[in-house]
């Protein structure tokens, strides 16, 4: 009995992931880069699997994509939110990188004092 519940949950999870990818693909494929309307997304989903846009789950997935920051709403259209790239290596301010910066700063100060 427990195995069938796990299988069902796994199947639902895979289905949601598939719909999520399709929504992102629908928004990405819009010509002119103006964004996709909800109608565009529905048509794209129906082209992939008939009747899937009639299920309410796709709207919940769309809302989660908006909340997570993967998509943004620009007027009545959905566009992909691209994160800004950082200059250089792209390292984050982790504890290790902060410690390395402090050590480098101390070394440059000690070099100045010696001169």
Automatic annotation (TrEMBL):
| InterPro entries hit by this protein | WH-like_DNA-bd_sf (IPR036388), WH_DNA-bd_sf (IPR036390)
Ranges where the record places region Disordered: 82-115
Q: Where is the composition biased (Low complexity)?
A: 88-98
State the name under which the record lists this protein.
H15 domain-containing protein
Native species:
Araneus ventricosus (Orbweaver spider)
């Amino acid at each position: 009995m427990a195995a069938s519940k796990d299988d069902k949950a796994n199947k639902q999870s895979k289905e949601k992931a598939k719909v999520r990818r399709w929504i992102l693909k629908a928004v990405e494929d819009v010509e002119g880069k103006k964004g996709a309307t909800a109608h565009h997304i529905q048509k794209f989903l129906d082209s992939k699997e008939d009747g899937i846009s009639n299920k309410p789950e796709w709207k919940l997935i769309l809302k989660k994509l908006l909340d997570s920051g993967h998509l943004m709403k620009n007027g009545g259209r959905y566009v992909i939110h691209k994160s800004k790239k950082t200059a250089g290596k792209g390292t984050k301010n982790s504890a290790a990188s902060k410690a390395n910066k402090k050590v480098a700063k101390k070394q440059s100060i000690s070099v100045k004092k010696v001169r």
